[in-house]
Design a protein that fits this description.
The protein contains 16 helices and twelve strands. By secondary structure, it is α/β, with parallel strands linked by helices. It folds into two domains: 172 residues, 3-Layer(aba) Sandwich (D-Maltodextrin-Binding Protein, domain 2), CATH 3.40.190; 157 residues, Periplasmic binding protein-like II (D-Maltodextrin-Binding Protein, domain 2, 3-Layer(aba) Sandwich), CATH 3.40.190.10.
């Protein structure tokens, strides 16, 4: 027990250090901490100055915003263990619901903002080597012999869970598809995964910088971040025949904003994500905005793709998590067989 406690403590310290967060337990009233997932790093790096300027014009207050980014599930566990986030901006509802069980987020968090508190969305795509040498066009190709798949850990990351469910959902929707055929297909795909990355950015580094794998499974928006960091000459984006809609929810950490006296700032910070400027920032970072006018303006960078949701295909995140990612669920069964 002492070893486990020390490991958890070190994980929290590492997250804080990685994000350059002040070690002070409490924050000043004019400071917010946004704890988020890996791939959203650049989204909020661009968004925060826009909101700071808007808030300054509105209130005269100069606000400081700090960011913390890592694998989504690890992030919410860090918040539960004491990382004093004012807001969480995640890539799946299940992580925010975890904070509900810890008494940190309101049970009705999804009703406190429009669109079930998801200001924008994305989908899962394939990143392949330039020229697509393995001719990977759809999910079925990822189970072929000789194909190496890079994917974040499905039990510990939102990116990995979405990739897993996207593959499972695709298999379900094939002629004669059912949970048995889906499990067989996903098992074959995971046999082609030489390792599980710790998060979305780690998966990208593994694929692009370390040169491992034939295909990277990731959010659509990650492709543009890869282009910015590594250039456009080394990869291509492949849109499968259908994929999962990844809704990206946000929430106020009630206990912490009351402690810090930052409720009004936190509320405004998240509300601004639905503003024209907030929606445009999302589109500029290749995240699909909810605002119809902004989406139309940036339509050329969002190819049409048939999508399904966690709700309509798996009965919602609670059922999906219980069936696939809890101990003894489908992932454990498949991985043990691997």
């Amino acid at each position: 027990m002492k070893i486990r406690s020390m490991q958890r403590l070190l994980a929290v310290v590492a997250l804080g250090a990685m994000s350059a967060i002040s070690p002070a337990i409490s924050q000043a009233q004019n400071s917010l901490l946004n704890v988020s997932y890996d791939v959203a790093r650049d989204v909020f790096k661009d968004y925060n100055p826009k909101f700071i300027a808007a808030w300054k014009a509105r209130t005269g207050e100069t606000l400081e915003i700090k960011q913390s980014h890592a694998g989504s599930t690890g992030q919410v566990r860090a918040v539960a263990d004491g990382l004093e986030a004012d807001v969480v901006t995640m890539n799946q509802a299940t992580d925010i619901n975890f904070l509900v069980t810890k008494g940190l987020v309101a049970p009705d968090w999804a009703k406190k903002f429009p669109n079930d508190a998801a200001p924008y969305s994305s989908t899962m795509v394939f990143i392949v080597r330039k020229g697509n040498p393995k001719a990977l066009k759809d999910w079925s190709d990822l189970a072929r012999t000789g194909v190496s798949v890079i994917i974040p850990h499905p039990k510990n990351t939102g990116n990995g869970r979405y990739s897993y469910l996207a593959a499972w959902g695709w298999a379900l929707k094939q002629p004669g598809g059912n949970d048995k055929t889906a499990a067989t297909f996903v098992g074959q795909m995971l046999k082609n995964a030489p390792l599980f990355a710790s998060g979305g950015r780690d998966a990208t580094t593994t694929f692009m910088q370390r040169g491992q794998g034939d295909v990277l499974l990731t959010f659509e928006c990650e492709a543009e971040l890869i282009a910015k960091e590594f250039g456009r000459g080394g990869f291509e984006v492949v849109y499968p025949s259908q994929s999962i809609l990844t809704e990206l929810p946000v929430a106020i950490v009630e206990k912490n904003v009351d402690k810090h006296g930052t409720r009004k700032q936190a509320q405004a910070y998240l509300e601004y994500l639905w503003s024209k400027e907030g929606q445009e920032n999302a589109a500029q970072n290749y995240i699909r905005p909810n605002d119809a006018d902004i989406m139309k303006k940036y339509a050329a960078q969002f190819p049409a793709i048939k999508t399904f949701t966690v709700a309509d295909t798996f009965g919602g995140w609670e059922k999906a998590t219980a069936a696939h990612f809890k101990d003894g669920g489908s992932f454990d069964q498949i991985y043990q067989a691997k």
